[in-house]
Fold this sequence. Notes:
Shape of chain A: globular
CATH superfamily of the largest domain in chain A: Periplasmic binding protein-like II
Number of strands of chain B: 0
CATH topology of the largest domain in chain B: MetI-like fold
Largest interface: A-B, 72 and 76 residues
Distance between the termini of chain B: 36 Å
Radius of gyration of chain B: 26 Å
Helix content of chain B: over 70%
CATH superfamily of the largest domain in chain B: MetI-like
Helix content of chain A: 25-40%
Low-confidence stretches of chain B: 1-12, 324-329, 632-640
Number of strands of chain A: 9
Structural class of chain B: mainly alpha
Strand content of chain B: under 5%
CATH architecture of the largest domain in chain A: 3-Layer(aba) Sandwich
Protein name (chain A): Glycine betaine/proline transport system substrate-binding protein
Largest sheet of chain A: 7 strands, mixed
Largest sheet of chain B: none
Keywords (chain A): Signal
Low-confidence stretches of chain A: 1-21, 26-46
Shape of chain B: globular
Distance between the termini of chain A: 57 Å
Strand content of chain A: 15-25%
Signal peptide (chain A): 1-22
CATH architecture of the largest domain in chain B: Orthogonal Bundle
GO cellular component, one term (chain A): ATP-binding cassette (ABC) transporter complex
Radius of gyration of chain A: 23 Å
Structural class of chain A: alpha/beta
CATH class of the largest domain in chain A: Alpha Beta
Number of helices of chain B: 30
CATH topology of the largest domain in chain A: D-Maltodextrin-Binding Protein, domain 2
Mean pLDDT of chain B: 81
GO molecular function (chain A): transmembrane transporter activity
Number of domains of chain A: 2
Oligomer: heterotrimer
Amino acid sequence: MKIRLMAGVVALGLAVAGCGGGARVDTGATATAAAQPSGSGSAAPAGTVNIAINPWVGYEATAAVIAHLLTNELGYTVQKKELKEEVAWAGFETGEVDVIVENWGHDDLKKKYFEEKKVALSAGSTGNKGIIGWYVPQWMADKYPDITDYKNLNKYADLFKTSESGGKGQLLDGDPSYVTNDEALVKNLKLDFKVVTGGSEAALLESAVQAQEQQKPLLFYFWTPHWLFDKVKLARVNLPPYTAGCDADPKKVACDYGELDLDKIVSKKFADTGGKAYELVKNFSWTNEDQNAVANDIQNNGMSAEDAAKKWVEANQAKWQAWLPK
Amino acid sequence: MSGAVATLETPALRRPPRWLVPVAVGVVLLAGYLTMRGTATLPHDDEAAPFLAVNQARDWVDSNRNDNPLFLYGVNYVRIYLGELYAAFETVLFALGWPGLVGVLGALGWLAGGWRLALLGVGGFAALGVLGVWEASVRTLALVLTSVLVALAVGLPLGVRAGRSARVRRALTPVLDVMQIMPTFAYLTPMVLFFGIGPSSATVATLIYAMPVAIRITALAVERVSPTAIEASASLGATRWQTLRKVQLPMARETIALAINQAIMMALSMVVIAALISAPGLGSDIIRGLSRANVGFMLPAGIAIVVMAIVLDRLTMAAAKRERTAQAAPSGPRRYAVAGAIAVAGAVAATLLPARFPDAWILRIGPPVTEAVNWAKFSWYDVTTAIRNVTSDLLLNPLQDVLTSTPWWLVAAAVLALAWWASGPRPALTALACLLGLALLGLWEHSMATLTTVLVAVTVTLMLGLLLGVAAARSRGFSAVQRPLLDAAQTMPSIVYLLPALALFGATRFTAIFASVIYAVPPVVRLVEDGIRGVSPTTVEAALSAGSTGGQLLWKVQLPMARGAILLAANQGIVMTLAMVVVGGMVGAGGLGYDVVTGFSQHSEFGMGFVAGVGTVLLGIMLDRITQGADRRSSPQVRG
Amino acid sequence: MEAGQDSAAIEVGGLWKIFGPRADRVLNGPDKDLDPSELRRKTGCTAAVRDVTFTVRPGEMFVVMGLSGSGKSTLVRCLTRLVEPTAGQISIGGEDVRAASPARLRELRRHRVSMVFQHFGLLPHRKVIDNVAYGLEIQGVPRRDRHARAGEILSLVGLDGYADAYPDQLSGGMQQRVGLARALAVEPQVMLFDEPFSALDPLIRRDMQTEVVRLHREVGKTMVFITHDLSEALKLGERIAIMRAGAIVQLGTPEEVVGAPADDYVADFVRDVPRSHVLSLRWISREPEPDERLDGPVLPAATVIRDAVPAVTGSGRPIRVMDGDRLVGVVDRVDILSAMGEAPSARVPEARS
């Protein structure tokens, strides 16, 4: 019974794939569309845009606003796909992802997908400035005013000791997919600290909230824009200032993180055939405050991403009107 | 054991006491450690040669995907068919509408075991709607059905072959071991390379995990069919095929149904991880809850998974056992009539009720749960931190210091000695080979870190499991209360309870241990309980009639006699704990788990992640071989 | 005593079965004469059946008796090659079994030889009727026909009304009746029994033995019956082959085995058998003393000693033992009592017909 059913499915698949000519999987293949009957693949004719959803709320906020406008103003269907960054990039090649709405650097991926494979390109800045840095809870900065200078960190190393840090101070890092120079920084700045890998964003968030609530010392890797700043007061620790090229050799970095211009990445095919949808994505640009407002609604005010986006869109007519294609 | 003979003939002083050899070996190892510590420790290097080699292989696949015939005519078709199959299931399930599907579940429940299960089916699936996750649940169900169908289509024939031929079984066993222990994360990215993003690759990832158990149990079932029945069939002139079809398969039916049941459970436990490559369904709610650090957001999806697991588990188990309890369950045409009536009622309701689950009926448990969790997070913090610190200072840190500062050859010698003593020469050599493999792959330091957490987690699991298992064996009431909790602990995606654990224990190895213990304790409790209950009543009666107290009965009779079951529990505890190594990597345990997570997240670290996945397998086989002496089953056992 | 070639139902000659590596090498070398433990130590092989030769007459009840490990179960499995023999000849109803192709062999098993097993070997997922019809089913007999036939057989073995039960709803004795019915249903010429009753309670075992005797009488099939129970062997067997370490050490009627054990092993075996229950008057009758009166009661020579007791005790004169019209000898009270008290020994009896 089951075997017969399988045989039926195989036959069906063969028929769909055009009778065994070999199924090529690339951005233009019909096979891709056949494999995704729910309608992915080619953007313009079907009016479907595949937006990757990377796992942080700020990203979700940006994606929600773009999706809202694509759906309600331009009449597209939007497919959201929950993916980690790395996987989302791979999706450009297989035709399953059209847009990444907020990209943090990833120069290695840009090299691979822009230059080597030629399947993706940048669609310009989102207007958001990404700043990675080291943070302590505000109460620590109040209590030990000189702690925000890295030179004094060794003085306070004892405060940051934990069961994981092997007698040194602890510097808590997050998800392994994040861009980080922390190991090199600790070494090159001769800090008496150990980088402890939290392993996920959740590990950072829970630690930061507890550090404020319980008045526990914590030094950790974090970034802005992020909704956490609306919930927990944080102070940034000043590392030696960033100068262009000071982070060229990852092993010798001894300066702070540079300001990242967050950008949108689209597949080549979407850029070529995406029409108005592509125009909108390209034109999109807003501020960190805009994103934080939407993200905060999603995260802390119990709204769904769709509702939060709708709220922002209704309140900011002028901004998004400018993004619509003429 | 020539010593035993010697005692009979000569006074005891002539031969060395039993403990002398282990103690002597221990002293030598200790001396070696004290003099050599800190040397030959093989520190970790992110760019070890094996990691880079794997990266190159990945790049080759990446650039040949569209030219190589293997892909053009093989993998790409598999991808298309799987996508089609999933879409078919999804379409059918949604076409039923929620009242229709609830009705079908009720009908199936009735067929499987009467009105109790019918109620469970209806109530359970209606609960998915009430939790507000109906659509995600249906997608998850479609994904589980797709992967289980394919897993069985491939797994059952293989299992039958393995059951009839020891050669096939021996060839399959190591492959199945790898499929089961290899962390899914390690091959999730290649999965995307081969099968793209979405249902197809999610199906493959799920079925890789679900298939081994189906094969193993089927093989076991076919193998265990009474040889007399097979001989009787042959003596009447049946062909091999007739004997298979009319004797072996029907007689193995109940156990094969268990294989299906277990495949479904395994598939459900992959829901969350598969969501990382955009598998449709409940998993994505949980992933999103994780990035928002919001338990209330992910809990409905978590509960939905538990509910679905319990409903499907009870239904398939009851269907398997129906034959045995044929008299109890309704039979004959009436049976089908009632089932049909339930299903038709659902279908009719589907036309009357809205297709979407009504919003008004949804119970929003998110916000209150979040508040409760927040309260617990803030008020228990001091206690939990103290527990964590004591465990880390007394247990984790000293052990990890020893393991990471010991020269590799000394660890190897210790493992060899221990495995030899516990399990004999062959397993000892396998264990040694695995350990050396870890060293060669450049994973030594991280393996030792992971080994530390695994050892501590196994110890805690065993202590807790023994305690609860003994309590359950001594009190039926306690056992009845405990069982559903154990079921939930095993099926609830660990990420859901990891968030509060993160808040309470911080991003530490302790949190990882906490997660492993919750996951690994249920099977240990069950094995211990069954083991103690399995002690022959005659023996218990004899002990009682000799005037034993309850305590004496436990310590002198029940525990020693349940030794086999308890050792199997230990073995299982280890395998289950290893399954959580990767989750541990996400909450601060570092080690191999973090390497695997990194490999999944960063392009340039893929090699390290994959190799660390292999390392986890090696570590698992090593621990299994060391402990298997007690239990001859050499491979990860099925749950249940 | 030996039946003629043509009339033999089963004929076995020089049969060997050696388990273990390089069985052929053992068979063709001098090692095959080693005793079992020596053979195992030296070659790792076990000779389960060693150079066994016997014939079974059509319609005969032939019993093979031996302790566990004596090779009797292997021997019976060799007959239809459920266990492949290492060497020797087997013919059943004139057909050379060892030369048969797999298809011929299946034909043989389907239509001519069937078997009853110690642990029943029933199929728990099938109703009793379908268990009984199983042999017909694999022959391709249509459902209606095979059920009709199975129903007849069920009433023959006394299981009327149990057709729709499942095996695990029956007692052990009834289950074995199902096993018996399954073997009978294919209407074989030869039935093989592998210790069929050793897993049953003593009382049920006795019933079943009686049942087999009755069936043997009614259906008249050739039967080869394996047992480790001497009293069962004596009760059922027309002839008994006693096996030890794979070889037949004695082959004869129950009376011969008990009355004239071939060696100390067999003697030891039958030591506790009450001779008076097995031996006939023929075995103890003697020439009358010159002064004895020959007007006592008359009993046939085949009368079992035990059964002669009332006649002897009821009469002061010796009993005349007659074989038809011929006087075989006389037996008096003292002879009977001493026969009942005497232990058997390996000797050739003086009186043999």
